[in-house]
Write a structure and sequence with these properties.
By secondary structure, the chain is of the alpha+beta class. Helices cover 49% and strands 16% of the residues. The longest helix is centred in the last third of the chain and has 33 residues, at 379-411.
Length: 476
């Protein structure tokens, strides 16, 4: 029978060689925190037409130059319009107030039997595609056509249908602020345009309100979205809606009409709270694991012995966490825009902890069973036999997961690749540590061999049958 326990220091040495580079990277460079831990902004944009993959660098450049955004990362989804919810943009000749938008929505909603469910989306109120020479309103709507009565595909709504419904009768006039006021010249990316002017202060110190102007409204064009693609932009700079206005206008001029489907900002206070909660989650999970294993293995002889099982499992767990953190510190330094520490990474670490402990408990449970069955063998022999018995099961279980994670890492999307890679590294490390570290540490603890690590005299161990305890006499 192959003696694995006799090679325990080789296994410890391999673990040390793997952990040390990561520890140096953690000390020298640290981890590369994402916006969840530093604060920042995530913006989801939907364009009329699909944005090519080559445009990601240019979109990042627009954010970097337009708002001094730092560490900008752009993701493109691959979803195409397949006859479900469609997006339409109604272009009007002038910026309009909320009454006009409500009237257009009411006209479209009145044709629900033809169009389906209509919903107003956040408008790009003041838009321009010709360098600001022409300013008009751009109101987006989502339309979900009703399913056909025979169970077939949903109806497909065209831009001509939407335009004919809106222009069935003249649109109401709108109230706008003169172009020389403090608010009219600023494009608005989200929200509803105001029908009243904002008071401005004259050079003499008195407050005056520019006179509002009533203008006729006509429909210029209706754009029909050809894709459901979402462009997600993440930056570690906290951006306000006002800072996003010129950026969105610039992107509109380059890639066509768009709307901002989602804006999420994480402030410094929330980021620091997330950091604390993430660390607390790992610590609390580790303590619960220690308590559970100590209780589950309480029948191995005494509470002190069951506590050893829990501590050895935690050391194996710590090994896996250090491996993942070390790899992330190295990759985060080499590829800072890709490998960040965010809430998804914390989720991966907690998943690795659970998988590692699961594998360790399987091995420990077999050791406990063999301790009772093989009462004539020493504890070292029992551990060795238990490892050989469970190794095939542990490897087969882990390999199925590793093959799946490898496929997701190689062929999955950019947004999930860091998550699957962290799981891949952690589960591979967890499989190794459960077999070659946790059980070996248990042997070292049970035999008292750890005493020789600190320069004390070696001990002569007399094995008691049943693998339970050891009577030791100090070597003189």
């Amino acid at each position: 029978m192959f003696n694995l326990t006799s090679k325990k220091y080789i296994f410890f040495g391999i673990s040390l060689l793997v952990i040390l580079p990561g520890l140096f990277a953690l000390i020298a460079w640290g981890l590369n925190p994402g916006i969840d831990f530093t604060g920042g902004t995530t913006v989801d944009l939907r364009f009329q037409n699909a944005v090519p993959l080559t445009a990601t660098s240019n979109i990042a450049h627009v954010f970097a130059t337009g708002a001094n955004a730092k560490d900008v990362k752009v993701y493109l989804s691959n979803a195409l319009n397949t006859g479900g919810t469609q997006t339409f943009w109604v272009q009007l000749n002038v910026p309009v107030d909320s009454n006009v938008q409500s009237e257009i929505l009411a006209r479209l909603a009145a044709q629900s039997s033809v169009l389906g469910t209509v919903k107003a989306l956040p408008p790009l109120n003041h838009a321009s595609t010709d360098g600001g020479k022409t300013t008009y309103a751009l109101l987006p709507f989502s339309i979900t056509p009703p399913s056909s009565t025979n169970g077939g595909p949903a109806f497909h709504v065209t831009a001509q249908q939407v335009q004919s419904i809106i222009t069935a009768k003249p649109l109401p006039n709108t109230t706008v602020v003169p172009a020389d006021s403090a608010t009219s010249a600023t494009p608005t990316a989200t929200g509803t345009p105001s029908a009243t002017a904002t008071p401005t202060k004259s050079t003499t110190g008195s407050t005056t309100t520019p006179a509002a102007t009533t203008l006729p409204v006509t429909l210029t064009k209706v754009y029909a979205g050809s894709t459901d693609q979402i462009v997600t932009v993440q930056t570690q700079t906290l951006l306000t809606p006002q800072q996003l206005q010129p950026i969105e206008s610039s992107l509109l001029a380059q890639y066509g009409v768009l709307y901002q489907s989602q804006l999420q900002s994480v402030g410094p206070a929330i980021a620091s709270s997330t950091t604390f909660l993430a660390i607390a989650a790992v610590i609390v999970a580790s303590l619960f694991i220690l308590a559970y294993i100590a209780y589950a293995f309480r029948n191995v002889g005494s509470w002190s012995k069951s506590f050893r099982y829990g501590v050895c499992a935690l050391f194996a767990l710590l090994h896996d966490v250090l491996v993942v953190l070390g790899v992330w510190a190295i990759l985060g330094h080499i590829f800072p825009s890709v490998f960040k520490v965010d809430t998804l990474f914390v989720t991966a670490v907690l998943t690795v902890i659970g998988f590692s402990v699961h594998d360790t408990i399987v091995v420990f449970d077999r050791i406990r069973e063999n301790t009772q069955r093989r009462s004539s063998e020493t504890f070292v022999d029992i551990v060795n036999a238990s490892l050989l018995q469970t190794m095939a099961r542990s490897l087969n279980t882990s390999l199925t997961v590793l093959v799946t994670l490898t496929a997701l890492t190689l062929f999955g999307g950019d947004s999930i690749r860091p998550f699957t890679l962290a799981l891949l590294v952690g589960i591979f490390s967890g499989t190794y540590s459960s077999i070659f570290n946790a059980s070996m540490l248990l042997v070292v603890w049970e035999t008292g061999e750890w005493r020789t690590w600190f320069g004390r005299k070696p001990t002569t161990a007399v094995q008691v049958r049943g693998g339970r305890s050891l009577a030791r006499a100090n070597a003189r």
